């Protein structure tokens, strides 16, 4: 029995383009983001992959990315579960701030710590550790059992919610996951064993 899990970060959003801390805000995809999502769908279609179940966050950039992928696959009616457990990391008080302006205001080193440390949150926001503590219980309780039952599953979410999953799946250290860059609109394909361990991983970014 195949146990297939595909993770994909949403396509470029309007706030990605403007270099803003986005978090739980809800900007739309850019034209490039739409194209990235369609391309992801085409890649999966070329691999003859189809899905039994889909998960996404409550934010439209992830939902629209998923919708465009499923459209390419001819699976627009696929059962889709939306949950804020899969939302992006909450950037708190720096949400909506331009990253360059944040560096000017708080200093390069402080912004780097907020962005790239594992357990130091920005004011009023979440660290990657806190994001993981929200994402992983949901994954283990809701998503993993479906995958282990043989349901081919796709998750369209966000850079940091997906980093939380990747860290767990690939058994990475905090230092390793913080260096992991996730391309927008790029599927990562996992095949798991009966215990949820990774048998193979294929990142379609190349």
From TrEMBL:
The record marks 158 as: Transition state stabilizer. The active site is at residues 10, 88. The gene is gpmA. Keywords: Gluconeogenesis, Glycolysis, Isomerase. The lineage of its organism: Bacteria, Pseudomonadati, Pseudomonadota, Alphaproteobacteria, Hyphomicrobiales. This is 2,3-bisphosphoglycerate-dependent phosphoglycerate mutase. It is an enzyme of class 5 (isomerase). Substrate binds at residues 9-16, 22-23, 61, 88-91, 99, 115-116, 159-160. Catalyzes the interconversion of 2-phosphoglycerate and 3-phosphoglycerate. GO terms for molecular function: phosphoglycerate mutase activity.
């Amino acid at each position: 029995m195949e146990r297939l899990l595909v993770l994909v970060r949403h396509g470029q959003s309007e706030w990605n383009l403007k270099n803003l801390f986005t978090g739980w805000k809800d900007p739309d995809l850019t034209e490039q983001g739409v194209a990235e999502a369609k391309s992801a769908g085409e890649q999966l279609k070329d691999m003859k992959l189809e899905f039994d179940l889909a998960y996404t966050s409550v934010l439209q950039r992830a939902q629209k990315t998923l919708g465009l992928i499923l459209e390419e696959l001819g699976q627009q009616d696929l059962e889709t579960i939306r949950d804020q457990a899969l939302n992006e990391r909450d950037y708190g008080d720096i949400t909506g701030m331009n990253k360059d302006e944040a560096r000017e205001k708080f200093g390069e080193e402080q912004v780097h710590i907020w962005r790239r440390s594992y357990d130091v949150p920005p004011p009023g926001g979440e660290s990657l550790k806190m994001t993981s503590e929200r994402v992983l219980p949901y994954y283990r309780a809701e998503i993993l059992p479906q995958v282990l039952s043989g349901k081919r599953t796709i998750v369209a979410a966000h850079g940091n919610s997906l980093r939380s999953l990747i860290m767990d799946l690939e058994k990475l250290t905090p230092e390793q996951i913080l260096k992991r860059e996730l391309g927008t609109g790029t599927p990562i394909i996992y095949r798991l064993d009966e215990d949820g361990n990774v048998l193979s991983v294929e990142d379609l970014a190349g």
